[in-house]
Amino acid sequence: MKQSFAILVFAFFLHAASNAQMMIVPNNNQFGHITMEDLWKIMIVNSGTQPVNARVEILLQDDQNNLVLSATTQEMTLVVGSNHLIKSIKQSNIQFGGTRPAQTFRSTGRLPYGNYTVCYQIIDSNTGHLAGQFCLEQTSRPMSPPELIYPYNESSVYITNPILVWKPPFPTGLDPFQYTIRMVEVKNGTQNPIDAIEQNFPVLSRNRLFSTSLMYPSDAIKLQYGKTYAWQVVASINNNVIGATEVWTFRLEQEKIAEKSASSSPIPPYRTLQLIPGSGYNIANDEIKFLYDNRYGRPGLRYGSPPTVHTDSVYFQIFPVGTPHSALNSMTVKTLQLGVNKIVVDLQSMSGIIDDEYYVLVLTEPNGKKYYIDFQFNNN
After folding, report:
1. Which residues pair with 250 in a beta bridge?
2. Within 13 Å and on the Cβ side, how many CA atoms surround 357?
3. Any idea where the domains of the chain sit in the sequence?
4. Can you name the CATH fold of 271-377?
5. CB atoms < 10 A from the CB of 288, how many?
6. Average pLDDT of every residue of the chain
7. d(CA 18, CA 153)
8. Ramachandran class of 10: left when φ > 0, alpha when ψ lies in -120 to 50, beta otherwise
9. Predicted model pTM
């Protein structure tokens, strides 16, 4: 059936193209996920000898021939050769149907799972005649839900202000995702995590989050050592729920620090930058050492953040855990060579650093990518 439909469409497409000298070439959407902007990602080829003033009409229907969307662009000039429609999305008159897929598409900008047919018509503005037409069938795959990243499921955490990290749903679209996060104590450490999330009073509940990470807030109920916690993140767009993560748990434990002795394993002299914070806390005395691969060939590593440093430079800051907007003060500047550099930061020179407190060093590259080192400052 689909093959016959494709042959019929292709034949009609050739007929329209030969009469009107207009060809419509749709672009493939990303991995079967159809967003609002995907409908406008077509190329119109004017194979004639003169520009044509025209408008484009779009009709989207579900597999029961119910209207999902109809749209008409403003008049545009189709020059000889290739023309891209994507720039016309904001100037189009769009009407949505009354079905559930239509309302979901309207509110989220993403087609729900199902089979659809989309047709394009090019109307010559001067004559009102059909200058080109093309239809195709589309299958929209389900959107993947958000996924938890850190703390890992059933892992141990050693600080009362851990950072919580998750992945957004896929694919992204024009409208940003909003997140709601909920965390509860698991009773006796043995309660079913899903039951705990649904039934227990939350120690943390935040909504309207736009970031995919959250440092456990200092104004939330303080986490207690020896207890197990369950957490979950729900993603939505315009108050429409897109999906929820699995429920993960972690246990807050008091970290056991071995007494210093000749047999104790020494801390590695130079630490490795991590892709996410909270990867493990080591003790730092009067200085912290780490390796940095200067792939960009930047001449220096500066302490601070834009606008105090140039956005195309490599810079770093040190924050107390739980207060990501209160960086310590320093005037540190390090000279960088191309390739791997051994960086030594004098913690004694950091204004405001407190003994036995936990900190995170954040290094930012010119492309915005961040790296982390977690440590506990111990001046003994």
Report:
1. 155, 229
2. 14
3. 2-140, 147-252, 271-377
4. Immunoglobulin-like (2.60.40)
5. 21
6. 81
7. 60
8. alpha
9. 0.49
